[in-house]
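Support case: user asked for a sample of complex input and structure output to validate their parser. Sending the pair below.
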Amino acid sequence: MTDTDTGIASLGVQLPPLAMDVEVLAALRGVDPAKLTVGLGCREMALCPEGYDVATLAAGAARRALARWGGSLDQIGLLAVGTETAKDMSRPLSAWLADALGLRGAVRSYEVKHACYGGTLALRQALEWRWSGAARGKAALVVAADVALYAPESPGEPTQGAGAVAMVVEAPRVAEVSRASFSYSEPAFDFWRPVGEAYPRVDGPLSLECYVKAAARCFEQLAAERGGREALARLHAACFHVPFPKMVKKAVAGVGEALGLSDAETAAFFEQKVEPTMRWSRRAGNAYGAALWIAVAQTLAGLEQGTPIAAFSYGSGFGAELMTLTAGPDAAAGAWVAEVEADLASRTLVDADRYLALRAAERGQGIQ
Ligand code: COA
């Protein structure tokens, strides 16, 4: 195998052991539950118990991906973690992960930050490191991991969540990833977290506007290069970054408009190729950088080798990138599905009192 024979060799997903039904949050905050379930399209939000954090999630996902890969740690030459849940302003989250895995030595280890786009950037860098030949046969371990918490009682609170997805980049056994990708960026303050502040500040309407614009601009580039709207028809599915499912629906409307689709064509594209990719997302909530890759992991599982899908990544600030993936020989078996289903089946759904205690414990850990 050569470095150019590159893609996702193995993947692992980790969801935390707690979750809350958004209808319980609606009752606690005195809002109509339909606003959250219908208006935002949310169902449950994953939560971390005390002592369980983004590093725990990243390590869980990485162990799962590595166990299925079959290679050894000394074959890893690059470790990149995309996150916006910084544990430290200097020390990279990859150092916590390397410690948990016992990974050290001739490894480039670092953290990538670009809001919810960081994990995708880490993946692209790992792929390009292999394609360039700089990897000299070594594999990369890439992890997208986040815990999304908003200030209690803020409008973003129902869209919280958590999760991690780890990918070993080497032979394309799970998926090939297109070398060409379609990027769009523009500076904006749509969602940001000033240094020293525990929770993000969000301009909800602006973040929606930026996200829709980025999706339209990226899909326009894909269509221009790959045969117009037929490029959408060839895709088996299109996965999006999922801040909350309604936002994805609005982005698809923007894409349809940009590509000149009729309302009926846009609705069919959403219902057949996008909505089904968000089954796990509705249970995880917004896992920031992991959110897109949770949808990709769900979608790849069960696909016949050669089946094409799209992945659209968005990070506030803002930057976006669209790429296509093609299912590899291990996608059909989807070995990671059993782990996700076990995570979902075994987790505890918390009530309002437990939720308030968890939020109070954040303050006890120095988060104000
Ligand atoms: N039944 C059904 N739907 C209802 C409803 C009810 N009782 N009450 C409100 N809604 C709908 C609204 O019509 C709206 O839908 P629409 O946008 O299709 O019109 C939706 O619920 C949300 O209502 P809104 O009043 O806009 O909610 P809000 O002011 O509380 O804030 C967000 C919504 C999205 C702005 C807020 O949740 C947020 O900031 N989320 C985080 C955004 C984010 O993640 N940004 C960065 C990601 S890239």
